[in-house]
Amino acid sequence: MLLVSRSTTAYHHGNLGPALEDAALELMRTQGHATLSLREVARRAGVSHNAPYHHFGDRTALLKRLSERGMAELLGAMREEREATAGRDPQEAAVRIGSTYVHYAAQYPERFRLIYDPEVCVPGSPSEAMAPLIGGVEAILAETTASLSPGGEPRVIAALTTAVWAAVHGLAELVVAGHISEAEARPALEALLTQR
């Protein structure tokens, strides 16, 4: 009996990349990304063990792609919230946008960890695909922070943006690590961002 690898079908339909990414994300849900192997990913996707190497080249390239995908999801969620809060009270909008960031981390802790893994996305040296995604997240944070202090000096707004990002990211990290619940993060954001 002749056994044919199912990878031929994936290649034929042009969906091998997304199939491998989805398989990797499923595995990461239970084991994180530190021990993820391309052989496991291939097995989960139902393709030959060489298929991931043909498509991504190596494990690092797959992790970079998954990191970019995660950042695109986070940015998309933040953009949706920014649009939903357009014209509202700037403090309410800031809390909701910050809560969206925390919610993404709570919903997808394994993806959030990967996005900010310095070995995958080297600080100061993002991939060509990652750079605009990081820029998009930073732009939303900067716009949101600037709306809290209209007419503020640019250098003060820049410093405040860094502080707000640090606070929101820190809350997300605490939620991911299990030190606080997502429900506890929102009142913290309200206390921080709604002071008159």
UniProtKB/TrEMBL annotation:
DNA-binding region: 37-56
Molecular function, one GO term: DNA-binding transcription factor activity
Swiss-Prot/TrEMBL keywords: DNA-binding, Transcription, Transcription regulation
Domain HTH tetR-type as annotated: residue spans: 14-74
Superkingdom of this protein's organism: Bacteria
Family annotation (Pfam families): TetR_C_33, TetR_N
InterPro entries: Homeodomain-like_sf (IPR009057), HTH-type_TetR-like_transc_reg (IPR050109), HTH_TetR (IPR001647), MT1864/Rv1816-like_C (IPR025996), Tet_transcr_reg_TetR-rel_C_sf (IPR036271)
Name of the protein described by the UniProt record: TetR family transcriptional regulator
Taxonomic source organism: Plantibacter flavus
Higher taxonomy: Bacteria, Bacillati, Actinomycetota, Actinomycetes, Micrococcales
